Structure formats: structure tokens, C-alpha cells
Amino acid sequence: MDLPLFFISDIHLLLNPNGGEAGRQQRLFRFLDHVQASGGTLFIVGDLFDFWFEYKQVMPKVYFPFLTKLYALKESGTEINYLLGNHDYWVMDFITDTLMTNTYFDDISFEANGKKFYITHGDGLLSWDRAYRVLKRMLRNPLFVKSFRALHPNIGYAFANWVSRRGRHFVHTDEYNRRIVEDLLGFADERFAEGFDYLITGHYHQARQVERNGRHLLILGDWINYFTYGEFDGQSLILKTWET
Ligand SMILES: [Mn+2]
Known about the structure:
By secondary structure, the protein is an alpha/beta fold. It has helices at residues 21-38, 64-75, 93-99, 130-139, 142-150, 153-166, 174-193, and strands at 5-8, 41-44, 80-83, 102-104, 108-112, 115-120, 198-201, 207-212, 215-220, 228-232, 237-241. The protein has one domain: 4-Layer Sandwich (Purple Acid Phosphatase, chain A, domain 2). Strands 4-3-2-1-10-11 form a 6-stranded mixed sheet, with helices on one face. It has a 5-stranded mixed sheet with strand order 5-6-7-9-8, with helices on one face. α2 links the parallel β2 and β3. Residues 46-47, 85-87, 121, 123, 203 line the site of manganese (II) ion (MN).
């Protein structure tokens, strides 16, 4: 795993691009160029796509510019690790074999330069999220996925669009965000007690870095409002903003 390590999440590339989408993607492409030039490793910590559902022979064409960009990055020799989120869990061989170096269906942990990392997309972590955890198990159930895949793609994607429009609430109150950080710190402290130095999560659409006795919780923000990323240079992990 080549240093530096870069962590991004919650880009939510749109199925129905709005006026700002091309510019947003160009900004992301410049970041990817930076990753390539640095000779480092990229971690995408979930919700790269606002919706990805792959079929045996079919995948969404709207993402073509991004897919070619990422494929070129991989072909140049950059390692791309993709941890699936709650918007882009339903991948097949195009993602796992063609586009990404490694794809992960669950949390991962590893050691780099003497530091122990725990990486999670983060959905379902909150202590009060019991109902969501049941829903998550259902949406990932192989029988459910098989049934959804049997629907015509136009029907499947129309349904996803409808769900996505209803669920778009990426800006929360300060009070709600503070409660989330507090709850995530409970989960982080458990990982720190196990010996992990860094807990990195996405999903919560807030950019925060909290230190606890030299160990760090990093909430990655997103590429909708924050344009943030985590960078580990071998010594320390820092939350940065791309093109401030
Ligand atoms: Mn998410």
C-alpha cells in the first residue's frame, strides 16, 4: 500500500445531473489527478454514486465520464480501494474486477506505517438506528437483490430515483450533528480500546476530526458541501479540503 493514503466518501454522483454536476465532477477529477501524481493509494469510503445497481449485462451510462476517469487512474497503477455504502452496495464484476483494485462489502481494518486503521462507511452505527439496521439487512439480502435484479433496469432505476429524491437531507442542525459525533465517539472509543489509532467514517455529511489521546476519529464530510478528504502521509492523518 503506497503512501500517502487518501480517503474520500459521499460523492453521490447524480443519476440526473443538475447544472452544477459537471463542475463538481471536474473538481473531483483534479483531485484524482493529484492522487495519481502523489503516487499514493485511494480509498473511496462509500456512496460514490447516488445510486449504483449493476446487472449481469447492464450498468448506468450516466456515469461514463467518471468511469473512464477512474479507469485511467487505475490503469496508471494507482491502487483504488472501494468500500461500499448504502447508495452503491449493489455491484457486480464491472466494479469489482474492471474498475476497482479492491472492493469491500463491509468494514475493513489494516496497518500502515505502524498505525492501525478502521474504515467504515458508517450507516447503521448510531445507537438509536435500530430500525435502519433491519432495513439495511433486508436491502442487502441476496434474495431481495436477486428479485430487484429481475426487474427491468428502467423500473429499478425509476424506483431508486424516487427513493433518492425523498431521502435527500444532507444538511442537519448543529444539535443533531453534535449528537451524531458524540454517538460515533462511543463506537470510536471501543475501536481505540482494541488498539486502533484511526477510525474513519463517511455517511454523516459532516466534516469533523476529533482527537482522543493521540487517536483520531475522522468523519469525512462529503463532496456536495464540503469537498473534504483525509490524508495519511505516514506520520499523521489530517482532514483537508480540496481547492478551498
Ligand atoms: Mn451513506
